[in-house]
Amino acid sequence: MWPVLFFLVTMVVISQGSALGLNGHQIHLLQPKSGSWGLHVPNVSCLSWRLGVETHNIIGWSTVPKECEGYVGHYMLGYQYRSDSKVVANQALLYAQSLDLAGDGKDVWIFDVDETTLSNLPYYAEHGFGAEPYNSTLFNAWVLEGKAFALPESLNLYEKLLSLGIKVVFITGRGESQRNVTTTNLKNVGYHTWEKLILKSSSYTGVTSLVYKSSERKKLEKKGYRIVGNMGDQWTDILGHHAGNRTFKLPDPMYYIS
Ligand SMILES: *[C@@H]1O[C@H](CO)[C@@H](O)[C@H](O)[C@H]1NC(C)=O
Ligand SMILES: *[C@@H]1O[C@H](CO)[C@@H](O)[C@H](O)[C@H]1NC(C)=O
Ligand SMILES: *[C@@H]1O[C@H](CO)[C@@H](O)[C@H](O)[C@H]1NC(C)=O
Ligand SMILES: *[C@@H]1O[C@H](CO)[C@@H](O)[C@H](O)[C@H]1NC(C)=O
Ligand SMILES: [Mg+2]
């Protein structure tokens, strides 16, 4: 049994080495530690794609590559998405706890809504996890149901920020017409209070999220608020001007908003 296994393992390592062009002696091939027997990493190209998305090297994409639909689905529904979100929320909390706050009620934390405080995973699970082209009619119908659930890691962070005396401001790409349902949905899942809920007014029609969110943050600072932290699932939530003293990017391999 063991000699046979050793032989098989050796063969696989050698053949992987050749495939990587490593049969010279320049690189000592390490045995990858993930995957069954540490020999096979499934869907490595989808993992690379997701890393490219999360690092903002891949931008302006419209749908998840078709061959990565299953990969993204497993990522979102499995423990990895939650674990990755937990790391972000934990870092945000450590940072918030380290702040020397003035205590004058002007310190605010900005949260995005979709895929940040609320999760639309039930919708995306039925629509290819972002592999299907975005359909605004269907998505808005889902939003109007008001059944999005809370991202547990964000809700936990929200509670802790409030207890530190930091006020919460939501800035969302949802339109003004969705104020009521968004308010109800947020309250139903545990976000019981906030300083402001800023929705995209019609004056921003055709304006990118990056520009809209930056200009709303500028208005907040003009009113005397200090944006100590800012968290979103899109890079356009946290890039641009008046981004806040620190920004935190939650994972989202399902869609890209410019
Ligand atoms: C991995 O990728 C292949 C295509 O490259 C796909 O057929 C398969 O369903 C994927 N597996 C998972 C778990 O997503
Ligand atoms: C969106 O979905 C609706 C309902 O299924 C469909 O009638 C419509 O054609 C879709 N729109 C696009 C742009 O695909
Ligand atoms: C807001 O929603 C609540 C229930 O969710 C409803 O009772 C109320 O009439 C709505 N208000 C507006 C202005 O649509
Ligand atoms: C936070 O950001 C503001 C605005 O950019 C800046 O004036 C302030 O010095 C920053 N505070 C800290 C503690 O870095
Ligand atoms: Mg979002």
Question: Structural class from helices and strands?
Answer: alpha/beta
Q: What percent strand?
A: 5-15%
Mean pLDDT: 89
CATH superfamily: HAD superfamily/HAD-like
CATH C-level label:
Alpha Beta
Computed over alpha carbons, the radius of gyration is 22 Å
Family: Belongs to the APS1/VSP family.
Signal peptide: 1-19
Function: May function as somatic storage protein during early seedling development.
Pfam family, one: Acid_phosphat_B
List the helices and strands and how they pair.
Blueprint: H1 2-19, H2 44-54, H3 69-77, H4 79-98, E1 107-111, E2 118-119, H5 121-125, H6 136-145, E3 149-150, H7 152-163, E4 167-175, H8 179-188, E5 196-200, H9 209-222, E6 226-232, H10 235-238, E7 246-249
Parallel strand pairs: 1-4, 1-6, 4-5, 6-7
Antiparallel strand pairs: 2-3
Helix pairs in contact: 4-7
Bound molecules: 2-acetamido-2-deoxy-beta-D-glucopyranose (4 copies) and magnesium ion.
Description:
It contains ten helices and seven strands. With 258 residues, it is an alpha/beta fold. The termini are far apart. Strands 5-4-1-6-7 form a five-stranded parallel β-sheet, sandwiched between helices. It has a two-stranded antiparallel ribbon with strand order 2-3. Helix content is 44%, strand content 13%. It has a single domain (44-249), classed as Rossmann fold. α4 (79-98) runs parallel beside α7. It has helices at 2-19, 44-54, 69-77, 79-98, 121-125, 136-145, 152-163, 179-188, 209-222, 235-238, and strands at residues 107-111, 118-119, 149-150, 167-175, 196-200, 226-232, 246-249. The structure holds 2-acetamido-2-deoxy-beta-D-glucopyranose (NAG) (4 copies) and magnesium ion. One 2-acetamido-2-deoxy-beta-D-glucopyranose binds at residues 135, 137-138.
